[in-house]
Write the structure tokens for this entry.
Amino acid sequence: MSADRIVIFDTTLRDGEQAPGCSMNTAEKLRVAETLVELGVDVIEAGFPIASPDDFEAVRQIARTFSNRTTICALARCRPEDIDRAWDALKEGDDVRLHLFLATSPIHREFKLKMAEAEIVRTAVEMVQRAVDKFVKAGKKVNVEFSPEDAARTELNFLSEVVEKAIAAGATTVNIPDTVGYATPTQYFQCISHLKKHVPNIDKAVISTHCHDDLGLAVANSLAGVEAGARQIECTINGLGERAGNAALEEVVMALRTRRDYYNVDTRINTRKLCAASQQVSGITGMVVQRNKAIVGRNAFAHEAGIHQHGMLQNRTTYEIMRPEDVGFVGTKLVLGKHSGRHAFRDRLKELGLTVDDATFQKVFDDFIELADKKKEVYDSDIVAIVENRTHETQDHWKIISCQASAGTGTIPTATVALDSGDGKRHHDAATGGGPVEAVLHAIERVTGINATLEDLKIRSVSKGKDALGEVVVQVNVDGRTYEGTGLSVDIIEASARAYLKALNQAERQRERADRKSSS
Ligand code: KIV
Ligand code: ZN
């Protein structure tokens, strides 16, 4: 029997980006969109255009650039001004979708919307019709998604009524959000099964899942939805998203692929690009992927226990249900040395699923040569790290020009830092601290004028050997919000400075966004 195809709807750039400290600028969103297109995602939810001029611009540029390769979607509340704004952002694109949402659960009806059931149904129908009209007038194939927000806590009879009327009004996809991550797999399965059974026109639309991870059940609930007949999954890279996040794209995709015998469905995802996508999103947002995270965590394929290693040597399948290469997992394999040429380096980037433009390639290649000079052996993981480091850094406001620290027994640790403020201007200052790292961080604060509290700082080595690249991850608090940053260097003082600055750049960006929002 031929397998059905599951539509993978990625909302990293909308629901994922809504997570505190995860905001991305338009250039970064375009980079992530390109990665999602190459990954084979069917629908990219690019943003919520009414939310801010930045969101509008990002959706517009993504639709212009990528809607000839995949469907680009924009979110709107069930309000005329939202729908018009979302459409304006999408209208220059080829293959586009409008996504409308309106809450239906009793708790949202009473306390948030203060609307009765009949008014909700009427509003949903009118707004879906308004969205459909946009496509009809533009001579495009109608592609409208409707989400009854907090569907998983909505009475099944009322949910069925809203879904039926939305489909009758022209919705081509009906999404069933578990907005607060409250559902359990059996309950979510029953909810989708109920809709399949009781909504007479359900076959006229694709049923979609949208599960949040507050109880750690987002992936399990999404898969339960598929078992009940859903044919679209909404998810994000690394499970990014508000609070505990959304269903992780890499996990749902690999569960469907690994257990094809059970689900009998396919996706269009090129799974060999999953790890590179995960690392890119982590690098841009500063949200570190936990080491033991399924599929893309650094330990996901590490077998430490002797009994496991013994089994693996006899036959990999004793303890391995997926091959690391199937998800593009990059280990510590030795690849290149100082004498490897540009061609070999470019080929290696391609094999690792890393795409960089020509200008960035030159910088990344220079970094590689510099690293190969310092280290005898350069590993795949080093290459992934320098690419991410370089591609992200080019978008930053503050950039490091130089950084020096001195410390030793009987001396006061002192650091001098020079930074570029993004306009080519050089600013420098010096400071002392309890140790050289603290002295550097103090000097950075003096130059940027950002008052930050360091909440956490972790150091790890990226590959093997005493000369390994060190990666520093920091968490800082600025104006009550926590930001993460990672920095990379064979010198851990410099790596700390880079990580700290990356986190402060995120805070700066958040401040700029807030300023723009309040002045628009
Ligand atoms: O979680 C949710 O309900 C949403 C909707 C806007 C689809 O993100
Ligand atoms: Zn959501």
